[in-house]
Amino acid sequence: MSVLVQREAADIREEWLGRALSTLPADRPAAEAAISELYRLIGVAPPRFHWVPSPVTALTTVPPGIRTRPSETADQVSAWPLPSRFSSLMRQLCLALDAQVR
To answer: What is the pTM assigned to this prediction?
Structure first.
């Protein structure tokens, strides 16, 4: 792989990693449209969207009619399976991209 191609691949990796780790506000209409389309593709009605400033805030601002499990509290976030799964997937993606650049 030429140095130019490696540099371009590294730039693309950095751009996407920056997007994945961004803390900028979401483009809510675009996010809702994309998620709704994914649900449509699998034949399921799209979810109702309830935007909050952070995942922890969601625990205290659940929309009417939605029941939370009593065991879900903000101090247990680190024990939830999704954050560790996302972290693992991100590490795998970074390793795979690094291997492609080398």
So the answer is: 0.44
Tens-digit pLDDT profile for residues 37-63: 988 888 888 888 888 887 778 777 776
Report the C-alpha gap between 74 and 69 in whole angstroms.
Answer: 12
Residue among 16, 10, 21 at smallest CA distance from 86:
21
64 assigned to some structural domain: no
Separation CA 8–CA 79 (nearest Å): 38
Domain that holds residue 97: 3-56+77-101
Residue 9 vs residues 22, 32, 98: alpha-carbon distances, Å: 20, 30, 9
Structural domain includes residue 67: no
Identify the pLDDT of residue 14.
92
Asked if residue 69 belongs to a domain, the reply is no
Instruction: Please check whether residue 52 is in contact with residue 58, taking contact to mean a CB–CB distance below 8 angstroms.
Output: yes
Residue 91 contacts residue 98 (beta carbons within 8 Å): no
User: How do residues 81-100 score in pLDDT, each as one tens digit?
Assistant: 556 666 777 888 889 988 88
